[in-house]
Design goal:
Elements (H helix, E strand, L loop, with lengths): L1 H6 L4 E3 L8 E3 L2 H15 L2 H4 L9 H9 L2 E8 L4 E8 L4 E8 L1 H5 L2 E5 L5 E3 L2 H16 L3 E12 L6 H7 L3 H10 L23 E9 L7 H10 L5 E3 L4 H10 L9 H8 L13 E5 L8 H8 L3 E5 L3 H13 L5 E4 L5 H6 L2 E5 L5 H6 L2 E3 L4 H27 L1 H13 L8 H11 L1 H5 L26 H29 L4 H5 L15 E2 L6 E2 L1 H30 L6 H4 L5 H19 L3 H4 L7 H28 L4 H6 L2
Parallel strand pairs: 6-9, 10-12, 11-12, 13-14, 14-15
Antiparallel strand pairs: 1-2, 3-4, 4-5, 5-8, 6-7, 8-9, 16-17
């Protein structure tokens, strides 16, 4: 075991920049074996007599150098083993060494090493004991590796490694095919006879098992729970044995329900014959069954609540992605190897590992996890939902002011009523006062229920939906317009001009270029010349403009949440929103009251008392409607009205 684990390894020592000592690098499983057996070799007498300056890995590197590698086949997730051939000078022979999935290796072995160190044929007693040990450690979630070997004949004899290589230049290729277990005919070149098929190798010596404890990261169970809460189905796809995969899945909370008919029958207290496949909510699928599955099988499988795929190959990963996509799921697939790239490309979201992932996998993926942590995927889901929600909130906020901007044009064009706001002030809203409040949504924190909602339907839940437009234009927008109209009529009333006179105006008065047209006041028969008409009109402009600014400040706070009360979410959590509200009001007042600026935008001091009344009205109405709407959505989530109000 020590020889195979030490020699059949691709771990190398590297000295990273900024570090004084060399450190082993390589696959995580091989690193675990390397460090463990390095500690054993350090305890040997020769290692204890080594120089004090020797580093921790001198003993194992000396051992590896004494048994050089002459050929290897790297690990491949398709055939699940790794092979190397080493020259053993002391034994005067070469040794083939194999490590990998125990159930795969056992099929290649005809012998095993017993307790006395003797090589004896594999019998049923050995297979029974092997199965018991495998199930014991695999059922505890430990990763179990099998080790096998085959010695070649001594140097110079028939059957030695060098002799076989000299006799057949294609020996390495045939050896690989024999180990894979898929015999094939080699195509002969011109003038050559067709070679015989390569027989499957079944005469290796099974040496033993080594288990490694590879516990999930502490944050993974909570991340899986967060996915379940967010209605995100997590499917485990692994190359581990089904027992190991199921054990790990239960540890992290991915497998919480019965996965067999026997478990369901025991839970219900009924006979197994009374339980159907549809009654089993969870399932553990062996990769070998995937090629034989029909569309009906996949339809049943993808409907299961909890799914674990074990002993899968990269090709089967691709099949899994295609079938889940076909079932209507938006799939995200993780992978780190070169062979994972087709599945990463096929998935809607390919996720590669940044620390241990291959360059090919990173190139094929859409997302690269810099820390190789599953919990980072959950964080990405949360941030994606937050980004989408904040974009919708910003759009709902921004569109609302279009209603009171367009309404004056409609009043003037269709009813002949005085136009309540000029074009320059409209530009001041769009290009000045709205900028900081609208961008403050970038800093808005997520609502507490954001990871408890199901994923949105990409076909129906767009960034700008009918519900959002209906809210912005005909709910919040009309509240803003109502506040503006309140000030509009109150301001003219202040100058003795009644709403009836305004309605009968027919655009005969308040022309900026007229000097001879006047309007009769309702009080005392007062007449306003052209300059006075202009002052009144610009005063109305200013008030209408301020009502939009002030109303949008109130709307800003209501748009920060889509279903939670702003008081529960936190009125003061987003400081940028507070700054935006202050800046918007300050800029609005600056435009209206600053000499010189207000002349450019056609503004005059509004009627102060009417501005105060209208401000209280529009702010109170916006807060009352916003909180009431969200309370109704929370209280009656299934109501038809909620389907219209919620966006």
């Amino acid at each position: 075991l020590l020889s195979i684990a030490t020699l059949n390894s691709r771990v190398v020592l590297e000295q990273k920049e900024g570090e004084a000592t060399v450190q082993p690098t390589g696959d995580a499983t091989e690193l675990g074996l390397y460090r463990y057996f390095a500690s054993i070799l350090r305890q040997l007498p020769r290692a204890k007599d080594a120089s004090p300056a020797a580093h921790d890995y001198d003993a194992i590197e000396t051992y590896r150098a004494a048994h050089p590698k002459v050929h290897e086949i790297p690990f491949n997730s398709s055939f699940k083993w790794q092979m190397s051939i080493h020259r053993l000078e002391q034994q005067q022979q070469h040794m083939l060494m194999l490590k990998g999935a125990p159930d795969v290796l056992l099929d290649k072995c005809g012998f095993y090493v017993n307790e006395q160190g003797q090589t004896v044929p594999i019998d049923e007693a050995f297979r029974t004991r092997y199965q018991q040990v495998y199930e014991h450690f695999g059922g505890q979630g430990e990763r179990v590796l099998g080790f096998a070997m085959r010695p070649y004949a001594p140097f110079g004899q028939e059957g030695s490694y060098d002799a076989q290589l000299a006799r057949d230049p294609k020996y390495h290729e045939k050896l690989r095919e024999g180990l894979i277990g898929k015999p094939s005919h080699h195509k002969a070149h011109a003038g050559e006879a067709v070679s015989e098929p390569v027989p499957r190798i079944t005469d290796l010596v099974f040496v033993g098992l080594v288990t490694l404890l590879d516990p999930p990261r502490p944050e993974v169970p909570q991340a899986v729970q967060d996915c379940h809460t967010a209605h995100v189905k997590v499917v485990m796809v692994t190359g581990d044995h089904p027992l190991t995969a199921a054990s790990i899945a239960r540890k992290i909370g991915l497998l919480t329900k019965p996965a067999t008919k026997e478990e369901v029958a025991k839970e219900r207290g009924v006979d197994v014959s009374q339980v159907t496949d549809d009654d089993v909510p969870a399932v553990v699928i062996h990769g070998s069954t995937i090629p034989n599955m029909t569309e009906a099988d996949w339809a049943k499988l993808t409907a299961k609540e909890e799914i674990v795929f074990a002993r899968t190959s990269p090709e089967q990963k691709l099949t899994i992605v295609k079938e889940f996509t076909k079932a209507g799921h938006i799939t995200a697939m993780t992978g780190d190897g070169v062979n994972d790239s087709p599945a990463l490309k096929q998935a809607a979201i390919g996720i590669a590992m940044g620390l241990n992932g291959s360059a090919v996998a990173k190139e094929a993926a859409d997302v690269v996890l810099l820390d190789d942590n599953f919990a980072s995927i959950v964080t990405g889901i949360r941030e994606g939902r937050l980004l989408f929600a904040n974009l919708k909130k910003s759009i709902a906020y921004t569109l609302a002011h279009l209603t009171p901007e367009v309404f004056p044009v409609l009043m003037w064009g269709f009813a002949g009523v005085v136009q309540p706001m000029g074009s320059m002030l409209t530009l001041c809203i769009d290009l000045l006062t709205e900028l900081v409040p609208a961008t403050s949504f970038v800093y808005e924190e997520a609502e507490s229920l954001i990871m408890k909602q199901p994923p949105r339907n990409p076909k129906t839940d767009k960034l700008t939906s009918f519900n959002l437009l209906f809210y912005a234009y005909f709910q919040a927008g009309l509240i803003l317009t109502g506040g503006c109209l309140f000030y509009f009529f109150r301001a003219f009333q202040h100058y003795g001009i009644s709403p009836l006179q305004l309605m009968n105006n027919n655009n005969k008065f308040f022309p900026a270029e007229s000097d001879d047209r006047v309007i009769m006041s309702a009080h005392g028969g007062h007449q306003y010349d052209a300059n006075e008409q202009k002052d009144i009109l610009q005063s109305v402009f200013s008030g209408w403009y301020l009502m939009i600014v002030i109303g949008q400040v109130s709307h800003l706070f209501q748009c920060r949440t889509s279903y939670l009360s702003i008081f529960e979410h936190g009125v003061f959590r987003n400081r940028m929103a507070l700054y935006g509200a202050v800046i918007a009001i300050a800029l609005g007042c600056f435009v209206v009251y600053c000499p010189g600026i207000r002349d450019i935008v056609s503004a005059r001091n509004p009627v102060s008392l009417e501005v105060l009344y209208a401000s209280l009205l529009v702010s109170g109405a916006m807060w009352a409607y916003g909180e009431g709407r969200k309370y109704f959505i929370r209280t009656y989530p299934d109501s038809p009205i909620t389907k219209v109000l919620a966006w």
